[in-house]
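Lecture 7 notes: from sequence to structure.
We start with the chain below.
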Amino acid sequence: MDDKEALRVGAAVRRRRRSLGLTLAAVAGRSGLSVPFLSQIENERARPSTRSLERVADALETTPAQLHAAADSARTVDVVRAALGPGVRRVVRGGHQLNAKEFAGEQDTGREYQHRNDEVMYIADGAAEVEAEGRAYRLERGDTLYLSGGVRHRWRATEPGTRILVVAVAEHIDATIDPPR
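Predicted C-alpha cells for the same chain:
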C-alpha cells in the first residue's frame, strides 16, 4: 500500500465514527490516541501506523481491513457497460453508498417494496404505473418519482421496451438519523 492509499482511510474512519455517534474525544479515550492525531487521520493529514490503525479500528468496533475496504469503496471508479435485452442489471457494482439498478422489459412482480432509505425512480423509456402509499401514479418517459425511506410501493411496466432506473441510498447506510446540530 502506498502513502496515498494509507491517507485515504481517514474518510472511512470519520464515517464509521459518525455512524456510531462518537466524538473524537470518545474515540481518543477508547484508543489511547490523541484528539489532534485522530483529527489529522480523519482529515488525511497523517498516516496512521499499523498499530495506530488497529487501535482506531478497535475503538470503532471494526477491523483495519474493514476500514481499508470502506476507504477503497469511497474512491472507486467503475464503468458498467450497457446490457441488451430484458431483465434487471446493477448499474453500480459493489458495496457503495448508492444502489442503482436498471429494469428493462415487462416487470411486474406484484410485490410490495419498502426500503429504509430514499429512492428515485426514473423512466428512461416506456411507461410504468407505481402505487405508493395507496395512491397510483402513471409515469412516462423522462418522468421521475421520489420515494422517501419507509414508503410502501409497488410498480409495473405498462409498455413493451420500458426501461426504469432506480437509484437508492444503499440499505447498509443509515440515512434515517438526523445529523448532529
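Points to note: The chain is about 30% helix and 25% strand. Helices lie at 3-7, 9-19, 24-31, 35-42, 50-59, 64-74.
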